[in-house]
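Journal club prep — side note

Before the paper discussion, L.F. wants everyone to see what a predicted structure for a comparable chain looks like in C-alpha cell form. Sequence:
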Amino acid sequence: MPKEPDQREFIQSLERGLAVILAFSDHHPSLTLSRCAELTGLSRPTVRRVLLTLQQLGYVRSEGRSFALTPRVLALGYAYLSSLNLPVIAQPWMEELVAETREACSLSTLDDTDIVYVTRVATHRRPSVALATGTRLPAHATAMGHVLLADLPKTELDHYLARAELAPLTARTVRTPEELLHRLDAARAQGWAMIEQELEEGLRSVAAPVRGADGRVIAALGMSASVASADEETMRERFAPMLVRAAAEISERLGADFSPCRHPERSAGDETMTIREDS
C-alpha cells in the first residue's frame, strides 16, 4: 500500500496563509478579522498573525478594521502564467497577426501601476521605443493597461488610483482619475481599448483581453502602429476585431469560456465608445 504523506513535511503556516488570501473575492473584497476567521475556519489570533505578516510583505493593506488585498498578489498570478508558458501558447496567434498586419504584437500583464511585457513579436521596422520582454510602461497611458485595469475589482482599482501617478507623457495622455475611469468603462463595455498618441506622439495602439479559466483577465494582447502606417479607422475596424478574435482563441486554450459580449465591429461606431483625442 502507498504510504500516507509525511505530515512532518507539511507546512501548516503556509496552508493558513494561502487560505487567508483565497478568502478574498469579488464577493468579499474587504474582510474583518472575524469574517476572515469565519470564512477560513481559523482562529482570530491565527488570522491576525497571518494578515499582519501579509501586510508587512505588501500583499495586504488595512482599511480601518478591515483588510484588503493589494495588487502585489498579481505577482503570484504571474508565476502561474510562467508555469503555463503563456508566451508559447500565444506565439502562433501573435505571429499570424504580425504577418497579416505588418505591425508588432505584444502580450503583457499588470504589475502594480505598470504593464510588463511578457513577450513581443516585432516587425522589421525599427521601433522608436525599444520594447522587449520585461519592459515596463505606465498602465494609464497604454491600451494594454486600460484592458488590464478595466477588469480589476473596485477595491483593487481604487488602490491603483491611489498609487498611480498619472503623468502626462504627451498632450493627449489621461491626466485625471475621472477621465481614466471613463475610458475603462468604455474598454469594459466594448471588450477592447484604443489609445491615440498618449504614450508617444505619432503612435496609436489597440488591445484586447486574454482570460484565464476563471474568466478573469490575466493578460492583454496589443498592437501599436504609427499614425503614418495605420489610421484610426484601420485600427478600429480591422485591427481591433482581429485582436479580439485572437485573444479569445488564446483564452480558450487557457480554459476560458470566452465570448465577447459585444463585437468590436459593432461598438466601433458607438459614439460613447470613441476615445477622445483632445487633451
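L.F.'s comment for the group: DSSP finds ten helices and nine strands in the chain. Keep this in mind when we get to the figures.
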